[in-house]
Amino acid sequence: MNNHNTSDLLQAFLDGELEQSHEQPLFNELASSGELRNEMRELLAMRSAVQQDIEAFTPPLAATSNIFSTLGFSLPAATSASAVGAGEAFSASSAAATASVASWWGKFWLPSATALIGAGVTFWLLNWGYNSNLNAMASAQSAEIEKIRSEAATQLTNQANSFRSQLQDAQSKVVVQTQKVYVPKIEYRYIDKPVVTDNATIQNENKSVLNTPVEESAPIIAAHDRQPLFAQHYTSGGNSIFTTQNSLHFASPISQDNALVQSHDALTGEILERDFLPQDEQYYQRWSAKFGGVAATITATPTTSLTEPSAAFNDLNLQLMYSTNEEWSFGVRFGREAFPLSYNGTISGRNIERQQYSSVYWGGVVAQFVPTSLSFWGGFQPYFSVFGGRSEIGWLGRTEAGLQYPLSSQFSISAGIDGSGLFYPFQDKSFQTYKSGINTGIIIHF
Amino acid sequence: MSKSISQHTDADLFYQMREEKIVAEQAFAELYARHSPRVFAYCRRILGDRDRAQDAFQDTFIKFFQSAQQERIMTNVPAFLLRIARNLCLNAQRTRHQTVQFEDFHASMHDESAEKTELLKLITAAMDLLPDDYRETFVLREYDGLSYQEICEVTNSSMATVKIRLFRAKQKIREILSPYLADLAK
Question: Is B4 in CB contact (< 8 Å) with chain A?
Answer without folding.
Answer: no
